[in-house]
From TrEMBL, chains A, B:
One of its GO terms (biological process) is amine metabolic process. The keyword Iron-sulfur does not apply. This is Amine oxidase. It comes from Zygotorulaspora mrakii (Zygosaccharomyces mrakii). The lineage of its organism: Eukaryota, Fungi, Dikarya, Ascomycota, Saccharomycotina. It holds the Pfam family Cu_amine_oxid.
Amino acid sequence: MANLHIFDPVTDEEIVTATSLLKDLHGDGKLSFSQVDRLDPPKKDAIKYLDIERYGGGPLPYVPRRVYAYYYVNNKMPLYKAVVNVSEKFVISSKITPEGTVGPLQPDGVAAIEKAILDHPIVQAEIAKLKLDKHTYSHPSLGKLKYTVICEPWMYGTDSIHDKIPMIQAYMYLAVDHSESNHYSIPLKFSPVFEYLSHKFVRMDYLPSGADERFITETLPLSKIPAIVEYHPDLVEDYQPREGLKPLIISQPEGPSFNVDGSKITWQGWEFRVCSNVREGFAIYDVHFKGRSLFYRASLVEMTVPYLDSRPPFHRKQAFDLGDCGFGNTANSLALGCHCLGVIKYLDTRRSDMEGNPVLIPSTICMHEQDYGLLFLHKNYRTDNSVVTRRREFVIQTIATVANYEYIINMIFDQAGAITVQVRATGILSTMPNDLNNVTDFGTIVAPGVTAAFHQHLLSFRFDTRVDGDKNSVVYDDIVPMEEDLPHNKYNVGGYQKRSFVEKSGSVDQSPFTNRTYKVINENSINPVTLKPVGYKFEMPAKQMILASPKSYNVKRAHYATKQFWVTKYGEDQLYPAGEFTNQSQRDNGLVDWADGTDSVRNTDTVVWATLALTHPPVTEQFPVMTSDFMQFLVTPASFFTQNPALDVPLASNNFNKSVYFEESVNKSASCCKSNL
Amino acid sequence: MANLHIFDPVTDEEIVTATSLLKDLHGDGKLSFSQVDRLDPPKKDAIKYLDIERYGGGPLPYVPRRVYAYYYVNNKMPLYKAVVNVSEKFVISSKITPEGTVGPLQPDGVAAIEKAILDHPIVQAEIAKLKLDKHTYSHPSLGKLKYTVICEPWMYGTDSIHDKIPMIQAYMYLAVDHSESNHYSIPLKFSPVFEYLSHKFVRMDYLPSGADERFITETLPLSKIPAIVEYHPDLVEDYQPREGLKPLIISQPEGPSFNVDGSKITWQGWEFRVCSNVREGFAIYDVHFKGRSLFYRASLVEMTVPYLDSRPPFHRKQAFDLGDCGFGNTANSLALGCHCLGVIKYLDTRRSDMEGNPVLIPSTICMHEQDYGLLFLHKNYRTDNSVVTRRREFVIQTIATVANYEYIINMIFDQAGAITVQVRATGILSTMPNDLNNVTDFGTIVAPGVTAAFHQHLLSFRFDTRVDGDKNSVVYDDIVPMEEDLPHNKYNVGGYQKRSFVEKSGSVDQSPFTNRTYKVINENSINPVTLKPVGYKFEMPAKQMILASPKSYNVKRAHYATKQFWVTKYGEDQLYPAGEFTNQSQRDNGLVDWADGTDSVRNTDTVVWATLALTHPPVTEQFPVMTSDFMQFLVTPASFFTQNPALDVPLASNNFNKSVYFEESVNKSASCCKSNL
């Protein structure tokens, strides 16, 4: 324990220490833990620690490690929030959260409610009405298979001020009796609602399956079950793997170019710590490039996924995948040669179960290098001499499975000081029943009888900036035409940059048609070449933000999703833009409060929040499993260095890269095959 | 010759046939060829040929091969345009182009004028005024180096109706006497103008070097020469290559997954032809995926680069890199293990020199496969079973060097029917003198005394569509909120898709905040699942279009650059959006005429034109050579197939991919090193 860095992920011992102390505190009450994880130290303490760690000047200060816990006592509201000093083993605080506060879902809690719902007599009675035993499915190789019902618990969402206990809306599906059958292909038309903690039945919702909210029917025997559109090779009928794909092997015979020392990574001038946690998946800390500070902390901090299907109860489909569930909690255990290629370093995540016991989720983060084409190149056309460098990248990847959907989060570092934040959405569309195959304009028919509704993904990335020092400012730069017919614009081709400062906490509007870019600058550090402050640029794609009405709960709960770029003054514990507790929340109590225009954000300790948005009208190519949809933004030096910081990257050569001519390879592999016979 | 496909690139014999016939035609006149290349067959003939080639139904029709040539006679205007039937060896037509038409620059023509300008007594006299022999530069390892002057010929651009003969504006720079010195680091302040054909001196321009157009000085002895910011490792002082980058080897022991048969490529369900040409670099033809037709022809067809610096003569800096020079003419010869990695197939380009002799530019196109992360993935959280596929890509790459700048054009195909069109801009910024180090808002000081002006790159990609058949329509789809408080939108979360048809030739406005996407659909082919027409989507980033005033020549000459997406009805020989002849053009005679709203474009033979735009305000990190700036758009199936067409891609496994744990690799490479000692 003595060797832990202040940012290192929570340990098993720390989880046990915290949950034991809290159990003791509550005596006879049975505690159900909703979430337990490490809490960052106060920033001022951390900064002191980091500066001494980096520059010396005394012994490393002692910074106690803290763990937070959300829990219920005796499976009842209210939700408690406690903070424990696990270094010195005492409870710092344990408080009841405000009335109606609901904690995040726990993986074990979800598994338990899923089973409870399926086993419940009312649900069983509803299932019995389908007369499933009259049907079987004959698979060409697997033979006769029965049908079975799958229960998919969903966060309940919000549509009233009255739902103040944790609830679950279960969407029910039909599958064949094989573990990998794609139940999303046959959505059923009833949807039981249960209490999450007590497992009490609340009511049965019947789902609309026509073009509007009115087409609702009672549960009747199924006369005919449509063919399930399967994705698993074991189930796809007459599955024939595509031919011709030859191995492409990525090897690093001399080892990788990165070093790992606990949570500390160094690679090609970069230094940072990568630390897993249950809510965000991971965060990076203390980011430096070529010895200069860039960010104190950076991570994905929230994603909301509102659906545009207004038919009740689908109107309540608005997941907060981080706040309601957690990307660490739902992280995939990544496998060698599958989720990333090359030489791979894996990191783990530790969570607490509902009882307070530590659970290991192995290999939730993979880190590796990749080649991504050319970094820079110039050919002197007079001599035909070229300077060519390859773009090597370092990738941190985590993948969360939140029920049907998969989110792949990549932070990609290049050799020239830039970070690409890339998100890929894959997995399976959330589907709605559509018996009559109605063509609608809010969803796409992705299989007979199945609609996938339009929806949005709005991800918030938080960058606690420390660009060349503690005090930063935020500007946005537009490129605009010069006024016409001026003496110095006689030919009307002139354009110039207009710089605007963000003076107060708030948001910046998107403006792609003036080429607007956001920059974090340091007014105390002037670039000796440009004679202007150094900076880092956020280059974001112009996108549609949250589409729901400002009157809707969707927006009240995710005000952050109304704007692309936010600036706040650093505030302790201000990490999550839709607030600390999002599950069944009534309103966003994050950015809407912190970015209210009160604080001055000029030349101070600033935090920027970048909303990456994807409006997703599904297409048939995305069913039964969707090819990754990409979105990304760039964080790049903008006159931060005095010249290209990658000039020292060694030139590309085939001695190093060992590529092969097609003709050679074809001949070689042909003779190879022959000799193998 | 009998084996040539109708789209195969021009051959040496064809060039000689064409230029010889034209020389014969003009008898005693000396011909200077400005450009010679293959001309596509008439589309109706080509379609007949392709359909019989693919589906049978008779012998392949005979389609004669044609070559076009632009040339001057006796190095004088006018410019001629001829078309030659090289199969039957006769001149189809030879015509004088309209008055003032200037042909594209020839690489040999540029080399000749560059030498002529430098050797010219007036220019030599101007150089002498600098008193360069008073200065030397001491390089730590190369010792004393003299200074020398470099001449960079530029297309003249346009600012009046009077400049009707081919002209060259030369920008002059200082370098040290070493072939790889970065002359862009010291721009000189005089700029001679010459006639391109006759090599006659026209006038000497003196360049403004202050904040506006007024700061012009005569050429004086240089009192002090600032340090050149070099990029070449031989010249960078005390160059130390960055340490720690280990080899990352991409190998395909069983050979590549693609087949090459002449110009025909097949890979993972894709079929198309890749054919080099001097103007576009390359075009792809007859594009099919999984047996279904997508495009007749697709290519980059133009790029204009207007500068926003309004100070004369910089206001005339507006390159048309394809029309004025040609991306095939300026293509790099790509080298194994440098410009792309793995198993590489190269293709060549053939051009004609000014005399009409064929010139081989070897290896101008490289084709290879790459891994780019995950294609799709789903984990069944109940069983922990995952379906994981890697995204293998097939890349066609060409790289053009147009003086200072490099453009990397990638067409990237995935296994699910999508094409990514990716452009990377690299190379060296075009620089302007700035003696007084004036901070301006139209340029960035990138080195002491050097400004790099803001500018734009506006690339036009043309897709001659054949989506599931000959007749296509174009729509744009917006996602918009439902009206509030309707009975079916009680909770105000609803949104829906609004489809609009492009009925007449013209452009579509950008609309990122309604998530607008452009789609080419086939109204005669209804997707049996969605019950709507099949389509392919163009997903383009919202960007600033050309910034100059509509009054300016910049816009008159590149009207296409005012809009992102254009739709026309197919017209024979309508290939280039700014017109066939762009060099010193007075107006765009391309899209502005073809997309004038006259033609109906619904359910007909349509062509779409996508303008990819980058406004580029330079930063210091982009000097002395810039790390690649990316831009891209996606062309993806949008309910074209009935389900994910990549379901048959084999699942990822480490048997196939042979990745390695970090710990293993570090230990292995450590012991490896030991045993090597």
